[in-house]
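Fold it.
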Amino acid sequence: MPAIRNKQPHSLVEPNDRPQSPTKGWTKDQKRQLFYHVIKNGEKDWKIAVEGKTGHQLTRNFRKTLLPQIERSCGFF
């Protein structure tokens, strides 16, 4: 026999009202820090580029977000 579950809503708070984790998402300042880090150091030493972000997050954000924007603005595509 299946268990009877309580069907109460998970949360009464709207999704936009929830506080975000400080490590989720990217602020303009963090993107700017990453951009200038790559200009100064090249695509290395990712761990020290932006405080609070992992090397994987930094690499991925640069290659998937910032680099395509730079290439489009310079006329490579």
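The chain has a mean pLDDT of 79.
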